[in-house]
Amino acid sequence: MNSFLNGILYSVDPDRFYQISTAAYSFAVNYVGNNIIQDDIFSLIENYTKAKEMPLEWIRIPIDDQDLCACTFIRCGRIFIMINTKLPYSKQIFAAAHELYHIWCYLENDDTELIRSGSILDAHTIDTGTTEAEEMEANAFAGTLLVSSDSLNQQIRIYQINSLDPGVDEILTLMDIFAIPYKAMVLRLFEEKKISDEKASDLLNISGEYIQKRIDITGKTKRWSFAPVGTERLGSIIENLSENTENERLPDSRLNSDKFKLEKIMKRYGIK
Hints:
Elements lengths: L2 H4 L2 H4 L1 H18 L9 H11 L4 E6 L6 E8 L2 E7 L4 H21 L3 H4 L2 E4 H5 L5 H14 L2 H10 L9 H11 L3 H10 L5 H8 L3 H11 L14 E2 L2 H10 L5 H17 L4
Parallel strand pairs: 1-3
Antiparallel strand pairs: 1-5, 2-3, 2-4
């Protein structure tokens, strides 16, 4: 069996995987409906935290460190989520869903980890698995939320995909539908018992170069494979600065200082 398969919750603790997938299903019933989420994950998280009356700040900036995917922390009664917008869009989407699990644990189960130390998601956790129990749970939650069992079965039927023995192109078709990374899509087929251990291992062992070649040739999932521009966010800084300026809430010297600092930040990260 591929080592990646040994580092997922479904393999390590099937009972806990069932609990997490049930939690993701219940969450979807309340906040998603029958929709396939894709990049609506960002507005979904906003809607969820709003329903829980918890202020949320998005920090979506391009960071050169490709290993840093996302982080979440709580300060002054607000949740801050940082997403690295230099990553392929599918990985940004999965990272946001992963961080949603930590927020869900805090808001629904009074888990104080976000207050104590926050959450940092690195690429290794998504790409090659993890040994940390909560990170395994967050990956499982993200996968089952973004690719529900019912939606997966429906799309397999609609697109007439050979779910028992899919090839790379068929995985790409499903990736295009659900907007998640290649390995995450293979894992969802494995978790739903659509493919065997051996088939999952074979698919996971295919080189990234070959997968990218098939993406370039077929065009499938290409829209989720690059980092889109114009998605950057700096929380409510710009909005607050605009309101302070319009309503003359601060002295001109403070407003000018704030504008100068904001312009430096935006220039640093190429935000227009």
